[in-house]
Amino acid sequence: MGETTVGAAVVCGGVMAWLLAERQREVRRTRLLLAGGGVVATGPPSWEQALGELRRLRGRWRCEWWALVAGVTLALLAASLLPVLAGAAGVPVLRRVRLARQARRTRQARADAVIALCGALAGEVRAGRQPGEALLRAARDSGGLGEARPGVVAAARFGGDVPGALAVAARQPGADGLSGLAACWRVAVDQGAGLAAGLDRLDAALRAERDQRADLRAQLSGARATAVMLAALPALGLLLGSAMGADPLRVLLHTGAGLGCLLVGTVFEGAGMWWATRIVRGAEGA
Q1: What CA–CA distances, in Å, run from 74 to 79, 123, 281?
Q2: Which of 15, 27, 120, 248 lies 20 to 30 Å from 33, alpha-carbon distance?
Q3: So where are the chain's domains?
Q4: Contacts of 32 (CB under 8 A, 6+ apart)
Q5: pLDDT digits (tens, 9 = 90+) for 245-279
Q6: Residue 122 and residue 146 in contact, taking contact as beta carbons nearer than 8 Å
Q7: Which of 145, 199, 154 is nearest to 172 (CA)?
Q8: What confidence category does residue 40 fall into, taking pLDDT thresholds of 50, 70 and 90?
Q9: Residues near 50 by Cβ (< 8 Å), separated by ≥ 6?
């Protein structure tokens, strides 16, 4: 069974390498033909081209699908279907983690764009431009308005309800600072207060809040790294056991005691990761 598993893994690796080489060869041939002819290289691709193709393949595949690939690989090595089932169960979990990370990055980028918008608007107002014209110029140079930019621009250009449009734009994740901009605009236009002074205070407050969040993330990075390291210890133990010749995969997947230990360990692993994530999120929310 062990020789069959190793042979199947080698065959799968060879087929993948051959497919990558054929695809690279076809791409090169097509590019030369579209460029007007020339000498077509039919030899095997270089290591740089193969690595570039692997990078493109990794970028095309979402990170969650690699859990299924790892599960299939372990299933071939251990001659068991349990790793495949575990890899398939890990796909939605990793997808959720990836989407949450993307949403967090989007919120952070939009918050930075709002700060840039406030600074640019304050500079335009100090340059002597009217608030509507200044907002148009600032919105053109920054992406702080996000998807609500057409509504805000239309309100500023045609004399509409700019504070209302800014309040609607503030509902986007990470664009909370636009509600402060709407308040500054309303006070400046309705009561004649200085818009530039209010924008300076708003810009300083948003920057202080961003620095505070960055400092908090830096303080929590150690806790996150510790949680990840503890979560990776079981895999390290399996690698050490395999290096010592103990065959831990066979024990875990083909014996009753191993299956019981695997079940209990998985439950404790999941509970520990959930608890650590809850602690970190609680600290971030506070």
Answers
A1: 8, 60, 33
A2: 15
A3: 50-102, 111-195
A4: 38, 39, 40
A5: 888 888 888 888 888 988 998 898 888 888 888 88
A6: no
A7: 145
A8: very low
A9: 17, 20, 21, 24
Q: What is the mean pLDDT of residues 39-43?
A: 47
Return d(Cα 23, Cα 134) in angstroms, integer. Answer: 53
> Which residue from 51, 65, 61, 64 is spatially nearest to 20, judged by alpha carbons?
51
Task: Say if residue 58's pLDDT is above 60.
Answer: no
How many whole angstroms separate alpha carbon 248 and alpha carbon 82? Answer: 14
- 168 neighbors 151 (Cβ within 8 angstroms): yes
Q: Which two tokens stand for residue 193?
A: 């207060």
Alpha carbons 262 and 268: distance in angstroms, whole number = 10
* Contact between residue 206 and residue 111 where contact means Cβ atoms under 8 Å apart: yes
Is residue 232 over pLDDT 80? yes
Pull the structure tokens for residue 64: 């969650």
H-helix segments, 35-147: 47-60, 65-78, 82-126, 131-141
CA distance linking residue 48 with residue 222, whole number of Å: 36
By C-alpha distance, which of 143, 191, 151 is closest to 168?
A: 151
Residue where the block lists tokens 């056991």: 241
Instruction: Count CB atoms within 10 A of the CB of residue 196.
Output: 17
Alpha-carbon span 206 to 213, nearest angstrom: 11
For helices 82-126 and 177-191, the axis angle rounded to 10 degrees is 20
Beta carbons of 9 and 72 less than 8 angstroms apart: no
The tokens for 264 are 């209990």
What percent helix, strand, coil does the chain show, rounded to 5?
85, 0, 15
| Rounded-to-integer distance, Cα 3 and Cα 51, Å | 29
Tokens of residue 161, six digits: 């309800």
Closest CA to 156 of 179, 123, 189, 116: 189
**Exposed e or buried b for every residue in 61-75, given b needs 16+ CB within 10 A?**
eeebeebbeebbbbb
